[in-house]
Amino acid sequence: VTVRVVEETGSTNADLLAALPTLHGPVLLQAKRQTAGRGRAGRSWHSAEGKSLTFSLAWKFDLPVHALVGLPLAVGVALAEALAMFSIDARLKWPNDVLVQGRKLAGILIESAGAGSVPHDASWAVIGIGLNIAVDDSMAAAIGRAATGVPWLADLDPNMLMATLLSSLAEALVQFEHEGLAAFIGRWNALHAYAGQAVVILDNGRVLHEGIGRGIDAGGRFLIESASGQVAVMAGDVSLRPK
Ligand code: ATP
């Protein structure tokens, strides 16, 4: 993996997406300051220098782009397992967040593209990760939702932290390419933040489903046991919340 670190950029995901046609192998781009971080559906990701880890990894898969649907779930598992090596009890919120004690520690944004000259059997994924080290008051106000950090991560050697995250991610990506999401379902469900808890699925603020969160099925859909039976929810632009 080629590693690049820049002082400041708008969005590491945007930069790598723009650079895809020129890439020959995996690239990790880390920004010390990210000024226009992105979330899903045009939402934004906030970070502050020295208080956040923001990076993206461009990775080419010998898989068609539709086979990457479950990738955010595999990346969540890889992140949570890497954080467990530092004794951080990270849990997963479907489809793309990492929580600590119910609050968001890290977000994952994956943007993918077919690989141009080989459109059907290869694709690039740009895997963006924002991880909070510390959340100060001004960041908390900008975020507007429960966020958290792990301040003592700042005491670690930053290269060691990045190397641990990167090796867990790379291992997961190779496994995803060979075994697909199947290799991650049980691990994801073991890390599920809302296992057995009352949850709602929101679509633009409107309650689509409510019931008990049961984790993910083989296709990466979120399972809710509602009064009328079990429902499997696809990861379009819907939001999961505790009830
Ligand atoms: P939903 O929970 O509705 O499914 P999401 O959690 O998938 O949304 P994303 O689009 O992945 O949201 O991330 C963007 C959202 O994350 C923002 O709208 C904001 O609420 C929150 N957010 C932004 N920056 C941070 C941060 N540094 N720490 C924690 N949460 C953040």
Automatic annotation (TrEMBL):
Kindly state which keywords UniProt assigns to this record, in alphabetical order: ATP-binding, Biotin, Ligase, Nucleotide-binding
Domain BPL/LPL catalytic: residue ranges: 1-177
Q: Which CDD domains match?
A: BPL
The record's catalysed reaction(s) read:
biotin + L-lysyl-[protein] + ATP = N(6)-biotinyl-L-lysyl-[protein] + AMP + diphosphate + H(+)
* Pfam families referenced in this protein's UniProt entry, alphabetically: BPL_C, BPL_LplA_LipB
Q: Which GO terms describe its molecular function?
A: biotin--[biotin carboxyl-carrier protein] ligase activity
Broad class of enzyme this protein falls into: ligase
Q: What is its EC number?
A: 6.3.4.15
List the NCBIfam families: birA_ligase
The protein here is known as: biotin--[biotin carboxyl-carrier protein] ligase
Organism listed in the record: Noviherbaspirillum album
- Taxonomic classification: Bacteria, Pseudomonadati, Pseudomonadota, Betaproteobacteria, Burkholderiales
